[in-house]
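Example record

One chain of 392 residues, shown exactly as stored in the release files.
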Amino acid sequence: MNPAARTQATIDLVDAILDAARTGGAAADQIAKRFFAARRYAGSKDRRAVRTLAYDAVRRFGPVPATARSAIVALADADPELAATFDGSSYGPAPITADEPRAEPGLAPAWLVDAFHAAGLDDSELAALLDRAPLDLRVNRLRAERTEVLAELGGDPAPDLPDAIRLPADTLPDSEILRDGRAEVQDFGSQIVSLATCAEPGGFAIDLCAGGGGKTLAIAAQMAGEGRILATDTDRPRLSRLAPRAARAGVTIAEPRLLDPGKESAMLDDVAGQADWVMVDAPCSGTGTWRRNPEARWRLTPDRLDRVVATQARLLDVAAGLTAPTGTITYVVCSLLDDEGRGQVDAFLARNAGWRALPLALPRGRVHGPGMRLTPASDSTDGFFVARLGRG
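Predicted structure tokens for this chain:
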């Protein structure tokens, strides 16, 4: 592909990402995979150049651009080499005109920026939400030692996280160590909030929103493969990933159970009041994961936020019914919005007499209301809120 063709391909890719954001379609990384699969003629350098420019555009423009061209044109205004590719050639974009629309730079829609400021996040914290994320691994202590994985893959061991290794952002997660279960791709923040369960060997844990099972496997490692974990979710495709991942990781104590949305309590009646630890990694806005999914801020609306907040509240109440009298709930969202974090937990405590927030001792993060908050700028992790709740 020549430079002009690369620019046109970038516009086409960003248009597909925009359309998916508006319609609730696939995530940007999946769209990019499909995009290049349909363009086998694009070489590795072409794919890298198109992907890099596309993600630059996604990161730069927080207010949703009207079109992909308006975003790339705005980038070209500050980049003469890019502007020169708008040459009107057979495979290139039409020339830029002075009066055509330009996308508006910014972190996010104004209502979201206001919500972040209300949560006590300053501009430096917000800017870090769109940095490129590194590749983090969690060494599976059931299968390997960290020194072994470091010797094969390299990377930087986290001094405060005994199972964690960090690799550069451009590292491709393709290694025999990942395929045979000796390590899992997992952000440092996700590893840290998993520690908040304080799970121990021999107990009974429920991962209420298990998804593909990342935190289930982390909890299983804490439990040294002894005890029982019931891993539940309402998303069949995501939950179906757990069994092969658990087999690779040598985890035999995790039992997947598919639930119907809105019927979680009834379908878990056989374990009501029995769990030592319930993990609620609740569906959320994902504002803490913009480093990996910057187009997610194009998907979020006030109405969608209201819906996920209502779901979170319901799941917390479900979790309360599953815990033993001495059991605990670990509530986690990969969001930095107070409606989903401290406000959600404050509301739970207000409507559930006898419950209280328990102190947390985590290697990173700062106290934020009844829990702790981790941010990219302060903790070099994805953004999370986590709280641990118990009776008494």
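Notes: The mean pLDDT is 94.
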